[in-house]
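Comment thread on ticket #2218

A.B. wrote:
> Attaching the input chain for the structure job we discussed in standup.
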Amino acid sequence: MVTSPSIPETPSTPAAAPPSTAAAAPPSPAAAPAAGQEAEAHPWTRYVAIGDSFTEGIGDPNPQSPGGHRGWADRVAEELARTRDGFAYANLAIRGRLLDKIIEQQLEPAMDLQPDLISICAGGNDVIRPGGDPDKLAEKMDAAVGRLTSGGATVVLFTGPDLGSTPVIGSVRGRVAIYNENLRTVAARHDAVIADMWALRQLSNREMWAPDRLHFSPLGHHTIAAMVLETLAVPHSLQPLEPKPVQVKNWRTARTEDLTWAREYFMPWVVRRVRHRSSGDGISAKRPAAAPMFGGPGMPPGSAD
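C.D. wrote:
> Ran it. Output below, let me know if you need it in another format.
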């Protein structure tokens, strides 16, 4: 039987209601604290995010963010820092990383930072490759999550989004669904939390995706951040953002855009796969140390200039 994952209690405030491994509800304005009302402090003081381009924040460019990308994890950390003195955040994710490399290069460094909240989204780059085996990947994730939970931290896992309407990689929808179900079993075994992107139907809107159709747009990252916070039962200030109305395009325009996308994004991706290269070659983690988030109560005094 699947049990609800546990969340540590906050000594000074009532414990938040435990999140469920069931599908997450879409973000709603009710998640934000009422005007003039302080949000309850959550129980976490140190958050470490590990994974690939999704967690690094690719698709959400921001020159003011470390590494030039913001992303859902930074947005989550910003909200968590609002109500917790001394809150610290590290992001070890690097674009293009496969599951084996994430486990090999990020897992133990994450544990060394002694977090009480860890997120891991890994295996997506493996699943979409020819021959990607969702069962073998789940076995590796099971061992990794067992290690991450061994120190008592709350661990957040992500299901993959529904790729059914996505050109080209939509063909792996069945493998993603199997991997998702395996991840739910992993979460139940280790009392981890599931952030359910498959159930987040807003992600089927094209405005949620970056021009490369492989990563999420700023709107997509914002929407996912709100879902993660609600999964953790954390009140937040992220308001739902509505995508622009979809423009009706004729067949010729749509095909021209598909050909342009294939030339500018898909073919370079294929070439990297053939040459055994990664978009993350030579890239370092954008936040390798757990440090305060700008704007949070734990931010050290100083000038923003």
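A.B. wrote:
> Thanks. Noting for the ticket: The chain is about 35% helix and 10% strand.
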